[in-house]
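Before the break, one more example. Copy the sequence into your notebook; we will annotate it together after we see the structure.
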Amino acid sequence: MTPDDADGTRLGPGREFRLIESILADREGGERVRVGPGDDAAVLDDGSIHSIDLAVEGVHFRFDWMTPEEAGFRTVAGALSDLAAMAAEPVGFLVSLGIPQKGGGEGKGEDDGPGDLARSIMGGVRKAEKAFGAPLLGGDLTRSPGPVIIDVAVIGTVGSRAPLLRSGAKTGDGLWVTGTLGEAATAIDCLRRGETPAPALLRRYRSPKPRIAEAIHLAETLGATAGLDLSDGLAGDAGHLAAASGVGIELEGHTLPLSRDAVEALGRERAVELALSGGDDYELLVALPDPISTEEVENFGKRFDLTLTRVGRVVEGSGVRIRTAPGAPARPLARGGWDHFGTEETRTES
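Here is what the structure looks like once it is written out:
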């Protein structure tokens, strides 16, 4: 299924996603659009991939938790992760900034406050440009009456290849994730309580890495049938995959790849909760046809210096359930992933 099917855009549970579905209802597609709204990015008939990502001060970042340069880097990395979700190669990106009039240093001249802040943010943008091999193509700069706003539009390509969509998972597929989960959310949890997170946790929050090469390998070499990046937490993003593919998902909670730092900071129970619902991981969640050999998993790890862990399976039905121990019954998840209009705390506000 693609988002242009008769059933319309299908997303996982949450007020934010019901609002998106209502906004997209009764829309008209375009002749040159292969994949429209509802996936991680849009796909045009020439194989180009387009997505946009908005970051707002006080919601996605705080300047007492990271520098303006880190905020710029992080926002570009998060936007490029939408290309990874589609197994697409980056072509470039555009950045728009909204900067308050009193945006930075004071007493240095009429324009130095907002100018200093804009230049610092763009310093992080340029670091991301070099780190991920995606050139800055342009953008816009305006005054904001309130918080700093960073908006990044990314362009990628799959060429003649099929993009990796959320909608291709099949009953019997295994569900796999790259890397470790919940570290960025653990860092935020510590910062919110006035504690200093371990350096590795802070790096995951401030400097995420879009898994672009890894996604292409999973699609081309291991035959991923569906996938997306984990920006909203495993529970919520698994819900999107289940809804788009018209399947159910059973997660194995005891297999979730947690980092030692996250468990030491919060204890295993809270670390598992944040791996499921915290968000900001920017790892990959993919459905792979069984069987995947131990050798293939080991080869992935050696090639990318990154773990690949089976965390569940695709089943008949709908929604997401979790098994907390081997042989235990699977139960519906009590909480989904990140929801901007839900009742949970925002990511960064205290």
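The longest helix spans residues 112-132. Confidence is low (pLDDT under 50) at residues 1-7, 104-110, 337-341, 343-347. Try to locate both features in your own notes.
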